[in-house]
Design goal:
By secondary structure, the protein is α/β, with parallel strands linked by helices. It has nine helices and seven strands. Keywords: GTP-binding, Hydrolase, Metal-binding, Nucleotide-binding, Riboflavin biosynthesis, Zinc.
């Protein structure tokens, strides 16, 4: 890790990589976590890992959660993000130990909040989530998980049980040197407002969503 900085968010040209800046207790409705704050000097993003219990080094239950303002804060039913965050926090507490890495800079699969809202407007006109991004001249998925891997390394985690339905997330962690011992499904029951979005994630983005079979067969 890099040396400490005097002012959060400011960096010298020599500073690179991910730096642990602060560790603070965070009591929540789920349980008492430690909020470990990091600064990504390469991208300028401030990141946080919510750590519960005493972590080991192997087979740690984790979630890499891409920030989603509309889902996480506003309860949007366009996606399942808020429910997944809730389920992940509950899961690590039930496990007795684990980590939820909340990844800022991942809004809209990495295209940003305003671009995501523009894509949502196009989806309301009939495009799917992939088509909407491409229509805006944007990548389908611009997220990078290198910072998440560096955070896990800083926490002493070598192998994980990854709560995710996205095989690309697993592959990304492995490519950055984190062993994925198991991919744990994080399946949220669909609703009328997100079923098309979830089908697109399964059919075009390779997400493992077997619970949609009953919905598809009855529609």
């Amino acid at each position: 890790m890099t040396e400490k900085i005097g002012v959060l968010g400011k960096k010298s040209p020599q500073q690179t990589g991910v730096e642990r800046v602060v560790n603070a207790p965070l009591p929540t409705v789920y349980g008492k976590f430690q909020a470990v704050g990091y600064l990504d000097h390469d991208r300028g993003d401030e990141q946080v890992a919510l750590v519960y219990g005493e972590l080991g080094t192997d087979d740690v239950l984790i979630r890499l959660h891409s920030e989603c303002l509309t889902g996480d804060a506003f309860g949007s039913q366009h996606c399942e993000c808020g429910d997944q965050l809730d389920a992940a926090l509950r899961a690590v507490v039930a496990e007795g130990a684990g980590v939820v890495v909340y990844l800022r800079g991942h809004e809209g699969r990495g295209i940003g909040l305003l671009a995501k809202l523009r894509a949502m407007a196009l989806q309301a006109e009939g495009l799917d989530t992939v088509e909407a991004n491409l229509a805006l001249g944007l990548p389908v998925d611009a997220r990078d998980y290198g910072v998440a891997a560096r955070i896990l390394e800083d926490l002493g985690v070598k192998s994980v049980r990854l709560m995710s339905n996205n095989p690309r997330k697993r592959d990304a962690l492995v490519s950055h040197g984190i062993k994925v011992a198991e991919q744990v499904p994080l399946l949220i029951p669909p609703c009328e407002n997100n079923i098309t979005y979830l089908r697109t994630k399964r059919e075009r983005l390779d997400h493992h969503l077997p619970h949609l079979d009953a919905v598809v067969s009855s529609s």
